[in-house]
Design brief:
Blueprint lengths: L2 E9 L2 H16 L5 E7 L3 E4 L15 E3 L6 E4 L3 E7 L9 H17 L6 E3 L2 E6 L2 E11 L2 E9 L23 H5 L5 H16 L3 E5 L4 H7 L2
Parallel strand pairs: 1-2, 1-11, 3-4
Antiparallel strand pairs: 2-6, 3-5, 6-10, 7-8, 8-9, 9-10
Length: about 220
């Protein structure tokens, strides 16, 4: 039986979520926990992937973090659904390329439920609606266990992407579900459908969904 534990932890500061990922990666490597997906939102933050060696960026109220994931710069903020996968690829028989494809597929199927026809663009990981990018993907690995993941623009304030070149692209290519549909989108509905599509695409036989971190995890990241 393949189990995916899903932890919905709501709005959380980037540093705390990053520390939580690092803790869960170690627990997954040691076999203490099953594959785990964190779903959450962040306050305004900019993260810089491994390709960004140096950057001069000082934005009041928007912290900047260098992180281990691939790619360049991206923005996270309220109204954006972020998912961090802690998955042992040794057990799922997937290459990194296959794993990214599966994340994209789950997002594409989710968007279709909202009557948004999305797809892929060759050479640019993530999910696109025409020539507009609606979701970004960036991963890191430790002993073949993944961390980091995806960011889906649901009701995201797209103005913040103008602070950077998101994933090396012009900020004008970024879009959101809200912008496409012309209305606010219920985030809980998006979460529910996305978790269903992840179960479908990744062939998990059971999902353990929880909105509360256990005391050990809360203490570890000082929530």
């Amino acid at each position: 039986m393949r189990i995916l534990r899903v932890l919905d932890i709501g709005l959380i500061e980037y540093e705390k979520a990053h520390n939580l990922q690092l803790l869960l990666v170690e627990e997954r490597i040691s076999g203490k926990i099953p594959d785990t997906l964190l779903i959450l939102e962040h306050p305004h933050v900019i993260t810089l992937g491994r390709r960004m060696k140096e950057v001069k960026l000082e934005v009041e109220g928007v912290p900047v973090y260098h992180v281990e994931r691939g790619g360049e710069a991206t923005y996270h903020g309220p109204g954006q659904l972020v998912g961090y996968f802690i998955v042992d690829l040794n057990l799922v028989n997937k290459s990194i390329r296959d794993f990214v494809w599966s994340i994209e597929e789950a997002l594409i199927r989710t968007l279709k439920e909202f009557n948004i026809e999305a797809g892929r663009m060759e050479g640019y990981p993530g999910v696109w609606v025409g020539n507009m990018k609606i979701a970004s993907i960036g991963l890191a690995l430790k002993w073949w266990v993944t961390y980091h993941g995806f960011a889906l623009n649901v009701n995201t304030n797209l103005e913040y992407f103008k602070l950077i070149n998101p994933c090396g692209l012009d900020p004008s290519v970024m879009t959101s579900m809200e912008k496409i549909l012309g209305r606010k989108i219920d985030m809980e509905s998006v979460k529910k459908i996305l978790v269903e599509k992840i179960l479908e695409v990744f062939s998990y036989t059971q999902i353990d969904f929880n909105r509360v971190l256990d005391s050990e995890l809360r203490e570890a990241i000082r929530l």
